[in-house]
Amino acid sequence: MEEKDRNQEFYDRLEAKGVSRRDFLKYCTALTASMGLTLSCTGQVVKAVEKAAASPRPPVIWLHFGECTGCSEAFLRTPDVGAIILETISVEYHETIMAASGHQAEKSLHDAVEKYKGKFVCVVEGSIATKYNGGYGKVADRSFLEIAKSIIPNAAATIALGTCAAYGGLPAAAPNPGGYKGVKDAIGVATINLPGCPPNPLNLLATIVKYLNKEKIELDELGRPLFAYAETVHDRCPRLKHFENDEYVEEFGSKEAELGYCLYKMGCRGPETYNNCPTAKFNDGTSFPIQAGHPCIGCSEPGFWDTMTPFYEEA
Question: Which residues does the annotation say bind [4Fe-4S] cluster 1 (predicted)?
Fold first, then answer.
């Protein structure tokens, strides 16, 4: 099939899911911003997504451990982005969206791992209990730790989606009796970490597109893709404007932007938090917490629940 026909088939599938070509281009524009690129690069991003969608869709096994399913909901509740994601991957197992349950679901998981061993992408949502042989978290009479050790090492790549999977998140907050940890710390496998509570689905889409197009994904020392986590929330915050408090300027500098009224004195953790929330935004690119008037709580940082609280006091 020629490239033109493959692209048309992709757009036809999106149309069938209620995503118009115009909608697709809108999200590619947002994706361009989330990757830290200028808008002039939107055409290249469109071609990259088209190329990824035209490639054989990689099988994905999506595991849930200690979590609230908010990471899945983040992309499922952004239906157009969710549709694009589901057009670029083949979800073989996902407890939230699959019809199967009980023994049938467990068989689906086992069969998928055996069929695609060494070829599937494993997306992990939630942290893993490690104390008492993983006794603080179980599915089908197997601990999270046992499931993780038996499945994740067989993956071609592992994406830790959300702060819980990346670093332990809320389940790992003190005193952490279950010994909850992020995937890498729990079982020692390399991961691409997409922290956030929840993470922005655009960052998941960008990671998938880069992976399918065999682009190198540059990571920081915490395993986060630099295209999304290279700058602090403060760096791109639209609320900064002539904020000239001496102590603040001495530590963080001053910047100019549209809205003004920095929330740092209200406890905003933006200067300490690496994420692209100000450019990617949530709810179809509508807003993000600071734009809505709420200080950043640092949810994409390791140990944020212990190190960033109380959220309404200056650091």
Answer: 68, 71, 164, 197
Domain boundary among 228, 247, 263: 228
Written as six digits, the tokens of 115 are 């069929």
Burial of 266 (0-12, 13-18, 19+ CB in 10 A): middle
Q: State both tokens at 133.
A: 């042989």
Angle at CA of residue 194, ends 191 and 199, nearest 5°: 155
* Alpha carbon separation from 305 to 163, 299, 301 (Å, rounded): 11, 8, 9
Q: What is the pTM for the complete model shown?
A: 0.88
Nearest alpha-carbon partner for 148 in 189, 118, 176 = 189
Q: Where are the beta strands (DSSP E) in the chain?
A: 59-64, 90-94, 121-125, 128-129, 138-139, 142-143, 157-161, 180-181, 192-194
Average pLDDT over residues 242-257: 46
β-partners of residue 180 are 129
What domain count does the chain have?
Answer: 2
DSSP strand pairing (121-125 vs 157-161): parallel
Q: pLDDT value at position 259?
A: 46
The domain boundary, picked from 202, 228, 254, lies at: 228
For residues 113 and 40, the model is more confident at: 113
pLDDT digits (tens, 9 = 90+) for 72-111: 999 888 878 888 888 888 999 999 988 888 999 999 999 9
Do 220 and 238 lie in a common domain?
no
Q: Residues marked as binding for [4Fe-4S] cluster?
A: 68, 71, 164, 197, 234, 237, 262, 268
Tally of residues, the chain:
315
Handedness of CA 264, 312, 163, 108 (dihedral sign): negative
Residue 100, pLDDT score? 86
Contact between residue 58 and residue 226 where contact means Cβ atoms under 8 Å apart: no
Q: Which residues are annotated as a binding site for [3Fe-4S] cluster?
A: 277, 296, 299
pLDDT score at 241: 53
